[in-house]
């Protein structure tokens, strides 16, 4: 039950900490819409040809009649919400308006929205790294508490009491012999796989320091990549859904 609340808290925390970024983006969008709305009043609303042409007269009046309408219309460009019926007739009458509408679409709907995604993903990765570091410290404490049991495990695995364990000695032993506090952090299917993972020099045998230090190292450093990957995947997937 506690695990579910931790997941919910991570999501809520991510939304709360993204508030500053979102407010900055909203302010930037509002400023951009206001500037472009003022320009639209000058080059579209006050253009006599557009105001008198039957194809564009109603569009100019309904969409660019006032500064407020101009900003609301240009907001559609940020979301790409049925904008063809607005800009297409205007460009047919005044071809140079393409150079007004195209930068708005590129800046508001593509560049700015992708920038928001990139900033939030970066923030999510930083949060995941911080959380992973906290988890790593907790794992260190678990390892410290499990150290006596880990040394006892090595002694039981060292059947011939040679001070070394070989793959033959442990390949038929169950993983449940490992301390439960460490077992959750080691991604192997058998003791033979664990031996291959810890035997970095391919010497065919593990001393007590190699066994203890290697198992501790794997337990600690598997925490970070998994946590960061999960956060990054969640954020990217979420914004892909919102974008499309």
From TrEMBL:
Which parts of the chain span the membrane according to its record?
Answer: 12-45, 96-121
Q: Does the keyword Membrane apply?
A: yes
Q: Name one GO cellular component term.
A: membrane
For this protein's source organism, the top of the classification is: Eukaryota, Sar, Alveolata, Dinophyceae, Suessiales
Instruction: List the protein's name.
Output: EF-hand domain-containing protein
Give the record's keywords alphabetically: Calcium, Membrane, Transmembrane, Transmembrane helix
Q: Where is the protein situated, by its record's location annotation?
A: Membrane
CDD domains on file: EFh
């Amino acid at each position: 039950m506690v695990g579910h609340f931790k997941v919910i808290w991570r999501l809520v925390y991510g939304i709360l900490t993204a508030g500053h970024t979102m407010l900055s983006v909203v302010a930037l969008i509002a400023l951009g819409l206001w500037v472009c709305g003022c320009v639209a009043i000058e080059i579209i609303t006050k253009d006599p040809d557009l105001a008198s042409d039957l194809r564009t007269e109603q569009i100019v009046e309904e969409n660019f009649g006032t500064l407020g309408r101009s900003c609301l219309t240009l907001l559609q460009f940020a979301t790409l919400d049925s904008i063809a019926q607005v800009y297409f007739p205007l460009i047919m009458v005044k071809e140079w308006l393409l150079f007004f509408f195209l930068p708005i679409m590129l800046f508001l709907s593509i560049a700015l929205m992708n920038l928001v995604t990139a900033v939030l993903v970066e923030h999510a990765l930083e949060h995941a790294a911080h959380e992973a570091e906290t988890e790593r410290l907790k794992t260190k404490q678990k390892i410290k508490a499990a150290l006596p049991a880990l040394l006892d495990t090595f002694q039981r695995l060292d059947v011939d009491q040679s001070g070394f364990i070989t793959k033959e000695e442990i390949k038929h032993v169950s993983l449940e012999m490992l301390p439960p506090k460490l077992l959750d952090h080691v991604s192997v299917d058998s003791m033979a796989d664990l031996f291959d993972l810890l035997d970095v020099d391919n010497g065919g045998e593990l001393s007590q320091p190699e066994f203890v230090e290697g198992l501790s190292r794997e337990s600690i450093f598997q925490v970070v990549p998994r946590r960061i990957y999960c956060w990054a995947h969640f954020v990217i997937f979420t914004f892909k859904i919102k974008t499309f």
